[in-house]
Give the backbone structure.
Amino acid sequence: MQTVFSIGVDALAYGMVLFVISIGLSVTMGLMRVVNLAHGAFAMIGGYIASYAARDLGLAYAVAVMLAVFGTILIAIPVERLLYRRVYGQPELTQVLMTIGITFCVIGIANYVFGPTLKTIPTPESLRAPVSLGFRTVSAHRLFVIACGAAVALGLWYFIERTAFGVKLRASVDNAAMAAALGVKTEVVYAVSFAVAVGLAAFGGVVGAELLPIEPYYALRYMVTFLVVVSVGGAGSIPGALAACLLLGAIDVTARYLVPDFGNFFFYLAVILVVCVFPRGLMGRAQ
Amino acid sequence: MKHVAIAALAAVLMGSAAHADVIKVGVVGPFSGPFALQGKNFKAGIDAYMALNGNTVGDDTIEVIYRDIPTADPAQSKALSQELVVKEGVQYLAGFYFTPDAMAATPLLEQANVPMVVMNAATSAIVTKSPYVVRTSFTTWQTSTPIAKVAFDGGTKKVISVVSDYGPGVDAEAAFKAGFEAAGGEIVEAIRMPLQTNDFSPIMQRIKDSGAEGVFAFLPSGPTTLGFVKAFNENGLKAGGIKFFAPGDLTQESDLPALGEAALGLTTTFHYAVSHDSAENKTFVEAAGKALGNPAELSFPAVGAYDGMHVIYKMIEATGGAQDAAKAVEAVKGLSWESPRGPVSIDPASRHITQNIYLREVAKADDGTYYNKEVQTFEKQGDPGLAAAK
């Protein structure tokens, strides 16, 4: 029984890390219809900024997180204006080619500027201490990540479903021409949603760095996992992404505990089954 | 017809003019991509050797040509090696970070009359694939066997083995098992985890549940190591008194700043520590650090490359610059020298390097950095992996 609880905690923590990093991709792919393979690159940029701020400049963790999120958005704005804007509404292949190109550039630049070694983001003492849950100890950082995941899920759901901006966003996504005719500034809507998605990527990159350490190849190394989460959850659906992360996290962690020799077999088996039964993902919208 | 005649004449002239010539060495390694750091170390080791010993042997000038192979890719490795031999006319092939890459190029050697100096790839069998292969790095068997003795003598009798599920991981598991069971210990469980593991908590739970007193671990150096060591601490295994044994890939110097305090006290066995205390090593670390630009990135592939160049220089010396693979390899059999890692020699039978293996413990230096502190020496270790394979 203790083992079951223990696996449960690990699964929840891993699922939430996946969620925080992947949700931004779900927003760009589902709501903006851009296959953004540079998502991992933005998460990595966030990680590098946080690492530089916290480790080399000695700033507090919270400040480093803020800097990472806003710094990455700042870098992303010209990229959006100059590059992404040209591929909105283009065929997927064009988008894939452009975004994978951006990814390779970012990998090269990161390698050149920061070197190929691992970069850590020092966490404050309060997040490093192990916390006893009665039946086992987990690091406070894991609990922090779980809380972050929950906060992001709630906040984003509120933002998209309950605010005036969310209404405009959904309108622009469903029919850009009609939304524009009704006075919605679709360009602004897209720019803001892109900034939010990039900010979430950076945030995920920073808080998830304990599990997915920051190094130049980060941008590609974990991209498949992020894409899997989006396709299983259904692009653009926040509850879907959350469900997908928890499901995949649980399967991955349990399989690793019981039959580690099978590797990622059960993870991908689950992915295949879900995609067969729900071709648009668990909660994807019909098109 | 005239052209053919001129070409033939030119070939003859060039052949006879092999003395006082440019001798090319082709180096295949990962210079970009996820393993770029290791390739960078190859280059640093080579640059350091050439900076300290000059770029000439006798009258001949040595030129190194690099070819990039970002991840293990046997077909590409073979193609690049072939291109180096045919188009660039290299007389020596060297480098090779991954075993499959080295294996794929071995069939070329005899026909091309080119010796291969393996500067990293650590599977025992590579040297058996061609009589022209010489290795100056290490094998996983070589570095993993002594730790079994260390574990048993330290009072740990029940160990769980946890390795990444790929060639070197399986090698490490087998080497440790052989050594530990021969000493009288018991392997309670052997787990192979997938290479793409990000979260090690479930593995740590398995270790806890197995009731082992210690864990033997092998993972390729790089990002996963960090997750593994952190999980080991965070899940209370270190605090719970479970001993940690591993070959030194896990605590390579370039990963130590990231591992930080989590690595403190980890014991590993390996052939080279940047901290090794000798005059040769001091010179080497200084030269290689300069070649790298950032001395903190220095790691074990650099020393394999440095000694690899030493072997190649000796080969060129022995053949006088003429292309003669058999003579070149013959000349370095039994060659012994003082490497930055300590005294080494090339075993005449296997053409693999015989070297000291050191037991190290991660310690904190006075300036707050972490390093591998050598605490015990196992002298003149050969490769037990070849014997085990027979």
Remarks:
- Residues 300-319 of chain B form the longest helix (20 residues).
